[in-house]
Structure formats: structure tokens, C-alpha cells
Amino acid sequence: xxxIWRLRQPDGCPWDREQTHASLSAHLxxxxxxxxxxxxxxxxxxxxxxxxxxxxxxxxxxxxxxxEGAFTVDDVCHDLNEKLVRRHPHVFGARAQDMTATSxxxxxxxxxxxxxxxxxxxxxxxxxxxxxxxxxxPVSLPALLQCQKIxxxxxxxxxxxxxxxxxxxxxxxxxxxxxxxxxxSEAAAEEFGDLLFALVNVARHExxxxxxxxxxxxxxxxxxxxxxxxxxxxxxxxxxxxSVRELNQLWDEAKRQERGA
Length: 261
Known about the structure:
It is a single chain. The protein has 261 residues and is mostly helical. It contains 12 helices and no strands. Helix 11 packs across helix 12 (244-260). The longest helix has 25 residues, at 210-234.
């Protein structure tokens, strides 16, 4: 923290001195994604480095706020600690011994209940209007992750299908609505979004993290495509010169190579 403070002094680093919360926001997101990539790669040494980069962004934001007289890094840690204690009543609560939390799922139920109580305690927003159920879900989240949170919170409020078969029925209904629209139209794009939303609900019912599942599929596609590129180089051909049939043959080779690995 002292190093970050020094960088923002008048005789410090010009780049660090001119940063604001707004200018740093993209860096915070980027560093977080790079840390997640290191986790996916299983590279512990790289993860150590990337977590440092994430921490740097947190400290920078805290120093910007301190320079503006808004809050300090101590305030950030204090608020976080209070939240952790408040959201773990099964560990820190006065009646912790009476609360049952023998599994991660049970803890998540407690966590959601405490967050609901927090939202109710806040009551109204700054403009005097009652805070809505979905208001605390950041609209800046990636669309798929945002969809998961919206779906889960609405279901917890009772807006839910009876079972996963009913959700699949909704998927089929959304597909028909999508196919009924003119290809490439704005209406088709909207209906396609509804179809994706319904599929995320299928994932929730099946206990699948949709964001993580899609991330794994992205990595799998990248891995197979890289194999195809290597094969093309070895055969001294370019992928864009191959026919669809030849590309599919390479793709099948990539799949066989994965199964044999």
C-alpha cells in the first residue's frame, strides 16, 4: 500500500497519478480474467503473479479513494470483515451451534438468506424508491453470468418451473419463436436471447454453472483448432484452402487425439 501511495505522489509516476476509478475499471476486469485463466490452466506460479495484479488494482482504487477523501483501504477491509462475519452466522453467530451447515449447498442457502435480509434492511434506495429484487445484480456483469444470477434470484422468489422437463419445454417454445422471425432481424436477435436465457435455466436445474460450462467449451474448441492448425502446417497447407469435408476430417482427428490422450 505504501508503494502504491508513493507512485501517486506529485513526484511519483505520471501514469499512476492520473488514474481514476473510471480509467482503472477495464484493468480490474482484465486482471481478474487473467487470474481465472491461470486457474483454468492449473498454473500455480502464474496464478500467484496474477493474484498480485488483481490486488494491485484493488490497492490502486483504494488509494484513489483515499486521495479523494472518500475511504481508505482500512475501510475496505473493515467492511469486508463485517460482511464475512454477517454472512456466516453458522460460524460467528450467537447461535452458531444451533445452525446446521454440513455441506456447501447448505452454506449457500444461509448466504442467500442473509443477503435477502440485507436487501430488505436497506429498504429504499437513495432516491426514495423501494429497491427491487434484481437491483443489486450488476448490469456490467458478463451477460451469461448476469443471466444465471437473475434466474436464480427469481426462482428463489417463487418464479420457477415445476421441473427441468418444463424448462426444456420452454426452450422448445423459445426456439419456435426464434425460427418464426425473419433471419437477421432485430426480432430474431431478441428471440435468440430468450432462447439462451431458457437454456441457462436448464443449466441451473441440472446444477451446471453455465458460465463455466461455456468457458470449458471455448477452451476445448481452441485446443482442437490449434491441433488442426498444427496438422495443416505439417501437411504444408492452409486451413482456409481446405474444403468443409477436409476441415471436418481434421476436426475428427482432433477429437480422436483428445480421447487417446
